[in-house]
Amino acid sequence: MISVLILTLNEEDNLEACLKAFEWCDDIVVLDSFSTDRTLEIAESRGARVVQRTFDDWATHQNWAVENITFKHPWVYYSDADEIVEDELVDELLKISDGSDAPVAYWLRYKNFFCGRWIAHCGIYPVWVLRFFRPSFVSWRRLVNPTPVVSGPVGHLNGHFRHYSFNKGLNSWFEKHNKYSWHEALETVRALREEQIDWRGLLPAGDPSRRRRALKALSFRMPGRPVLRFLYMYVFRRGFLDGSEGFHYCVLLSFYEYMIVAKVREIARNEAGMRT
After folding, report:
1. Phi, psi (5° rounding) for residue 132?
2. What is each CA distance from 57 to 30, 80, 108, 149, 213, in whole angstroms?
3. Counting beta carbons within 10 angstroms of the beta carbon of residue 30, is it exposed (0 to 12), middle (13 to 18) or buried (19 or more)?
């Protein structure tokens, strides 16, 4: 068996479906950031353990979880509340937890949904994320969209989880990404000052996480990032094949990129003692 870790903040619209997909699990821990809706009620009704901690940033929050929460089982699967694991993935997780595989963590893919449609193109599939691990071997860094640091071999899984990031509506999506864009702006400023482009990491045959970091570092230095992101997603990565949903999704992600660029400029002006 395995333990499940779910991070929440006012997730009454998503948590029920997420927990239902983990009915087979006897150790579900909900790390809640003091929700004010029915999140805790739903978690407890499904038999989950609830731990509360004020959210600061993603890496610190996740690192605190693996360092301070006592899990019942040696393997932990991490999920956001707006995600649902598919049966194929569950079968893989349980098989690994019953064996003695060499990897201490695993990458897996997800299917992102918008307006009821799987956005299969736009350059967001496949994106590999590290979600299954032995807690003592894993830590994270970056304020948002944290990067895992693994002390040991890492494997890959075939199964997927489904991601419904728009389940709470566009207002909620904009509120969340307004906060994300500030953290991304801070990371952009830091990276421009401290990091060089990892040209070898850009090679398509390399580690997917390293390539993603290298592409992000390159994008920090390119002019017209919002427009370039739209063209990359909608044209080069064939987002047009996802219909009108693909078009609107690409526009939204381009606007998110614009918010990051605008806030990087704001930080620079503030540091120069200029008014925003």
Report:
1. -125, 125
2. 17, 15, 23, 16, 19
3. buried
Q: What is the pTM of this model?
A: 0.84
Assigned token pair, 261: 């660029």
Between the CA of residue 179 and those of 5, 92, 96, 187, what are the distances in Å? 23, 34, 36, 13
Q: pLDDT-based confidence at 163, cuts 50/70/90?
A: very high
Reading the block at residue 222, the tokens are 């390119």
Q: Taking the domains of the chain in order of start, what are their residue ranges?
A: 3-163, 170-271
| 31 touches 65 (CB < 8 A) | yes
- Cα–Cα dist 31/54, whole Å: 10
CA 45 to CA 36: how far, in whole Å?
16
Q: In angstroms, rounded to a whole number, what is the distance separating the alpha carbons of residues 46 and 20? A: 8
Positive or negative, the CA dihedral 245, 247, 249, 255 is: negative
What are 10's two structure tokens? 């006012």
Residue 204 C-alpha from the chain's centroid:
21
Residue 103 is encoded by which pair of tokens?
A: 């990897």
Structure confidence by residue, pLDDT tens digits, 28-58: 999 999 999 999 999 999 999 999 999 999 9
CATH of 3-163, one of 3.90.550.10, 3.40.50.720, 3.90.25.10, 3.40.50.300: 3.90.550.10
Residues forming a β-bridge with 154:
105
